[in-house]
Design a protein that fits this description.
The protein is an all-alpha fold. It is 82% helix and 0% strand. It has 17 helices and no strands.
């Protein structure tokens, strides 16, 4: 077969061509996340708080799919670099099989655990009612998001990220269109309230999943998707989760962090929880493009690792850090200059504004530091050392951030809690640089230069 572009195209052009479509689609995804909450906030603040409290479980749901997808991506791209096409197809079919198992798990969660999940966080019956309605729908109809994740990862592994931009963008735009129609009962549809927000979300996910599957079957000729005589391959699944479990744990730790922060902030007021939820929606505008950049970095680094082309690997890492730091710095400036205008999109009361403006300004200070940690963490995953990324995530979000937030909460001033984010990111950077020095010495520096 002809050499894949990840081994021959100039690195800067390759990184841009691989990442730009994903960055654009991630920006659309971020916009849809914000628009979703903007409409929910117009029901009432309790509805916005309920959606904010749903986020930890939704993060676990996404973590299971994305972490598995990271493992499939790394294995498949490396197998392409090694020209092992039997392994390429095993990675793809076993990844689809694992996606079905993930959906089954969260169907059970949606039917049994949603109400207890909310009651652990609050005793406000109005918030619980909103939350159970919203989250039950998102969990029980999560087959759309799992099909979207796996099929988009297969396209990404072979460098066809343009099609992911179409599928993600279509799903997100459809969600944004359906949100006001289903929530407020426009165009003759019944007024569904917060259930309408959930239905719009899963409809967009199902649409994106179908499109991704069609694109794979029609355009992704480097992968042969055949389940004739399929049996789960334990060696393939083992490698997928060797790389993917650290990513799953890392993102699940994020859900623990959000859950813990909700508990800490809930002692001040439900408005504080809503502020934190709004921050998470807004910060996606900054982080999502960097995650889109990551989606370009992983297959390039993994492919050239498999092909023993060290110069291309190092150039990819250098450029990715420069681009990520630029994006994050721009995000910091945005949060510092117009925090009030950002919060006003969510129908914020004066009380919410007084709490939200300093929150955005303080938390945003850690964005440029986070850019380096994110890119280097992606490099660890690409080289099959996702455990390093997991350790740094645990260090940041559990070992440092939550204890710091709790101790700062004892001052009685909710604004002091936000300083836990910059504190935790500095600790994360220290550990990340230590691990990168180690992996550069033991792995990257030993790879032949190869062609440029």
């Amino acid at each position: 077969m002809q050499e894949n572009k990840m081994g021959v195209m100039p690195v800067n052009r390759l990184l841009i061509s691989m990442s730009a479509p994903m960055m654009l689609s991630m920006m659309v995804q971020a916009l849809y996340n914000v628009v979703d909450s903007v409409f929910v906030a117009r029901i009432e603040e309790d509805a916005l708080t309920a959606v904010s409290m749903a986020f930890p479980l939704q993060m676990v749901m996404m973590a299971m799919g994305i972490g598995m997808g990271v493992g499939v991506n790394a294995l498949l791209s490396r197998a392409l670099g090694e020209k092992d096409f039997d392994q390429v197809n095993k990675a793809a079919t076993n990844g689809i099989f694992l996606s079905i198992l993930n959906y089954t798990l969260f169907l059970i969660v949606g039917l049994t655990l949603v109400e207890p999940f909310y009651r652990v966080q609050t005793d406000n019956e109005n918030i619980i009612s909103y939350g159970v309605t919203y989250l039950s729908i998102c969990c029980c109809i999560s087959f759309g998001i799992y099909s979207q994740i796996i099929f988009e990862r297969l396209m990404q592994s072979t460098g066809k990220t343009f099609y992911n931009m179409i599928s993600q963008g279509t799903g997100a735009i459809l969600n944004m269109i359906l949100d006001p129609i289903f929530i407020f009962g426009l165009l003759g549809f019944p007024r569904l309230g917060i259930a309408g927000a959930a239905i719009a979300t899963v409809t967009g996910q199902i649409t994106a999943g179908i499109l991704s599957a069609v694109f794979n079957l029609k355009y992704n000729h480097e992968i042969s998707l055949s389940f004739h005589g399929f049996r789960p391959d334990l060696n393939t699944i083992g490698y997928i989760y060797k790389v993917g479990i650290p990513s799953i744990i890392m993102q699940s730790i994020g859900s623990v962090m959000v859950f813990g922060m909700n508990k800490i902030l809930g002692k001040f007021s439900s408005t504080a929880v809503a502020v934190f939820g709004v921050y998470f929606k807004l910060q996606s505008f900054v982080f999502m493009p960097v995650f889109g950049l990551n989606n370009g970095v992983i297959p390039i680094v993994a492919y050239n690792y498999g092909a023993s082309r060290g110069r291309r690997m190092r150039e990819t890492i250098r450029l990715a850090i420069i681009y990520a730091a630029s994006i994050m710095t721009a995000g910091t400036l945005l949060f510092e200059l117009i925090p009030g205008q950002l919060f006003s999109m969510f129908n914020a009361s004066d009380h919410m504004l007084s709490m939200g403006i300093p929150a955005l300004r303080i938390i945003a200070l850690h964005f440029p530091i986070a850019s380096v940690c994110i890119i280097l963490g992606t490099v660890f995953q690409s080289l099959g050392n996702g455990v390093y990324t997991m350790i740094t995530s645990i260090m940041r979000q559990i070992v440092v951030l939550l204890p710091a937030a709790f101790l700062l909460s004892l001052t009685g001033n909710v604004n002091n809690i936000w300083w836990s984010f910059p504190i935790a990111e500095i600790a994360s950077l220290t550990v990340t640089l230590f691990f990168y020095t180690r992996i550069n010495r033991d792995v990257i520096s030993r790879i032949p230069e190869g062609v440029s």
